[in-house]
Write a sequence for this structure.
């Protein structure tokens, strides 16, 4: 004889419990049940306990659509990131999620895929889903998108580019000092590109300028070289770069997506780190410490950045101006590791 909990083929699934079911189970009115569950209005402690027990027994979940109509809130936080394939967005999303969960919100994540047109389409979809606020998790190709969303009355939190630049500048100066102190004077900054997108291009330009200024103070020189797409970084290309008469003695890998093909190309070309070329990686990743040799990194606190952005978004919900606080703190640091050593010509023996 089948267990009574077995599903009968073709039988309808049990319907979800409603507020009316909870009220009937607890022996109260729907209004009292609603007040007890939401914590708004007056309900005696015994009544509240009875309603909560009934809701638990019936596995009751509030209807999100009904709640949205009643409160004008959907308990969802929209997140738009420039490119989900970039590993830095994982800790960023983790930080956003930690703050959102603590406030009872779920995340709805959209990928801009490094395209201004796709970013705009994805932002419209987030708006269509009536998210309570939108977090822009990075520098978008369309730099003005967040501003236009605010004009539509939406709560939007964006990266404070000036604060980000200031934090990066300190970490870049520390990395440049480490290279200069090791004896390097010719450094190449390698980035994925070229890109015509306004936001990423400006960010790349500004980062290169910070490197140029930091190296110049110590008598160094930056050769900013954009590299081909990932599939074009190979042993021949990197060997030709390093073997130039005026070639760099140190490389700065400007992004995490570039690191695997660059490291593979260096290994295939027989170029040893740091004996033949030193390397600094821009970005935090657990495998940087496990690599042989461990890679020196410039690490932005993306989890902390995500938390700050989420707090901005939550602060903006319901505010008259729909504008988040204009300033917040983000940190970046340089981690010196074994991938930085003296230039090949300066080694003894």
């Amino acid at each position: 004889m089948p267990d009574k909990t077995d599903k009968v083929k073709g039988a309808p699934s049990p319907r979800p419990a409603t507020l009316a079911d909870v009220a009937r189970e607890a022996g109260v009115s729907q209004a009292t049940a609603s007040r007890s569950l939401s914590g708004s209005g007056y309900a005696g402690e015994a009544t509240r306990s009875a309603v909560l027990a009934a809701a638990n027994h019936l596995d009751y979940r509030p209807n999100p659509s009904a709640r949205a109509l009643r409160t004008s809130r959907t308990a969802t936080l929209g997140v738009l990131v420039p490119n989900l394939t970039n590993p830095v967005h994982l800790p960023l999303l983790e930080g956003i999620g930690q703050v959102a969960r603590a406030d009872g919100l779920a995340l709805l994540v959209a990928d801009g895929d490094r395209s201004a047109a796709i970013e705009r389409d994805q932002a419209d979809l987030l708006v269509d889903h009536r998210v309570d606020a939108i977090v822009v998790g990075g520098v978008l190709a369309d730099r003005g998108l967040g501003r236009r969303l605010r004009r539509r009355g939406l709560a939007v939190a964006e990266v404070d580019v000036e604060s980000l630049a200031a934090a990066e500048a300190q970490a870049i100066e520390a990395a440049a000092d480490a290279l200069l102190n090791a004896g390097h004077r010719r450094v190449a900054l390698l980035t994925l590109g070229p890109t015509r997108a306004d936001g990423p291009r400006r960010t790349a330009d500004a980062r290169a300028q910070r490197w140029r200024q930091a190296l110049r103070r110590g008598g160094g020189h930056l050769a900013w070289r954009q590299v081909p797409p990932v599939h074009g970084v190979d042993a021949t290309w990197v060997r030709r770069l390093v073997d130039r008469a005026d070639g760099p003695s140190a490389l700065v890998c400007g992004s995490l997506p570039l690191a695997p093909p660059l490291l593979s190309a260096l290994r295939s070309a027989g170029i040893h780190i740091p004996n033949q070329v030193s390397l600094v990686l821009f970005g935090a990743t657990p495998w940087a410490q496990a690599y042989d040799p461990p890679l020196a990194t410039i690490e932005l606190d993306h989890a902390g950045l995500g938390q700050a952005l989420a707090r901005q978004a939550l602060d903006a919900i319901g505010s008259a101006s729909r504008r988040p606080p204009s300033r917040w703190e983000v940190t970046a640091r340089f981690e010196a590791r074994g991938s930085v050593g003296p230039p090949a010509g300066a080694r003894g023996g």
